[in-house]
Design brief:
By secondary structure, this protein is an alpha/beta fold. The chain folds into 2 domains: 163 residues, Rossmann fold (3-Layer(aba) Sandwich), CATH 3.40.50.10950; 154 residues, Rossmann fold, CATH 3.40.50. Helix content is 43%, strand content 19%. The protein has 13 helices and 13 strands. The strands form 3 sheets. It has a 6-stranded mixed beta sheet, with helices on both faces. A 5-stranded parallel beta sheet has the order 3-2-1-4-13, sandwiched between helices. Strand 1, helix 2 and strand 2 form a beta-alpha-beta unit. Helix 4 crosses helix 5 and helix 8 crosses helix 9. It is globular and about 65 Å long. The chain starts with a helix and ends with a helix. Bound molecules: coenzyme A. Coenzyme A (COA) binds next to helix 7.
Length: 338
């Protein structure tokens, strides 16, 4: 529980409110009852009040103190529809907004937007896309960010020593391509986007007590390989340094050069990151998603995430296979970031 101590202490003094989109899921109710009992945060559960209460009673979960809100009977629905229609002007009609708000993923997200909650956790039954899309459309990227990405914090304790590393983006961006305007001019290069992922992942890592040494990964080390996304990883290093001159970042590196001092001595002896990286940036979602799961399943790391980065408010996604304990921990992380 080491990495949660500080977050928990902060939450106790700053009482935030989290909204759970799947209010009648047993895992959510179990986590909610624990969060309420420990007085860590206010809890809003989306769903039909009778169904939520029955599910809580069936599971033996005490959810006294939770607010249950049902989109079907929400008294301020008209105002929420109007606010969403304004935000989505030109993209969604009022009728489309009303239909979207009948579902708890959009409804919960609008509760955050309207200031009724500080954070949202969903995805116990919704897919990642259905949890994240409302946030992208309504909460939007924060000032100075061009894209939302995600990272995982991986934690393990071995022989009494705690080890924490970070990996991004393993869950959101399907690829990085240059964004161009109507005339074909590049307005946001792919490398700049990957650099933003690196900077945001380092910030998230720092939030969790990691002193980030960022390696932008590839199948090439300092130009040893060509093709694929090698150039993207290479260019992202310079872009990341330009974006945040205080960042300790280097690459492009193969994973062994990034983590093994021995390999680093041979391949890139002058690097301040090689051999000691703790924050890993993947040029492709496939590599990132597979990579963090290898660390989790074969490396014995506990994986927390995906933690969304670059949004205006903390919204996070659960895995549909999540346990009640994972919901509890992700709620602490999510509200802790508010
Ligand atoms: C995140 C994801 C759902 C977005 O896909 P999408 O909804 O098809 O995206 P669209 O291109 O239709 O864009 C929808 C809106 O989100 C915005 N958006 C999309 N990706 C974004 C990003 N990375 N950052 C910021 N905004 C983004 C778009 O600008 C658009 O906004 P607008 O409607 O106001 O113009 C998609 O990238 C995805 O499925 N990612 C992988 C999720 C996954 O399965 N992960 C593995 C499991 S952990």
């Amino acid at each position: 529980m080491g990495m949660f101590d500080k977050l928990i202490a902060n939450l106790r003094s700053s009482k935030k409110t989290i909204v759970f989109t799947e209010g009648n899921d047993a895992r959510i109710l179990s986590a909610a009852s624990k969060l309420l009992k420990e007085e860590l945060m206010g809890v809003i559960l989306c769903g039909n009040a009778d169904e939520v209460k029955k599910a809580a009673a069936d599971g033996g979960f005490d959810i006294t103190g939770a607010e249950i809100v049902d989109p079907a009977t929400y008294p301020e629905m008209d105002a929420l529809v109007a606010q969403m229609a304004e935000l989505r002007r030109g993209k969604m009609t009022e009728d489309e907004c009303r239909a979207a708000l009948s579902k708890s993923n959009y409804f919960g997200t609008m509760l955050v937007k309207a200031g009724k909650a500080d954070a949202l956790l969903g995805g116990a039954t919704y897919s990642t896309a259905d949890t994240v899309r409302p946030a992208l459309q309504i909460i939007k990227t924060k000032k100075g960010s061009n894209l939302v990405s995600s990272s995982f914090i991986l934690f393990r304790e071995k022989d009494g020593v705690e080890e924490k590393i970070s990996m991004g983006d393993c869950a959101i961006n399907l690829g990085y391509t240059d964004r161009v305007d109507k005339e074909g001019n590049v307005v946001l290069s792919a490398a700049r986007q990957l650099a933003e992922v690196a900077v945001e992942t380092a910030r998230t890592a720092a939030f969790f007590g990691i002193d980030p040494k960022v390696a932008i990964l590839s199948f090439s080390t300092y130009g040893s390989g060509k093709g694929g996304t090698v150039q993207l990883s290479h260019d992202a290093v310079a872009e990341a340094r330009a974006l945040d001159p205080t960042l300790t970042v280097d690459g492009e590196f193969q994973f062994d050069a990034a983590v093994s001092a021995e390999v680093a001595r041979t391949k890139c002896p002058d690097s301040k990151v090689a051999g000691q990286a703790n924050t890993f940036i993947f040029p492709l979602i496939e590599a990132g998603n597979i990579g963090y799961k290898i660390a989790q399943r074969l490396g014995g790391f506990e994986a927390y995430g995906p933690i969304l980065q670059g949004l205006n408010a903390p919204i996070n996604d659960l895995s549909r296979g999540c346990t009640a304990d994972e919901v509890y921990k992700m709620a602490i992380i999510t509200a802790g970031m508010a």
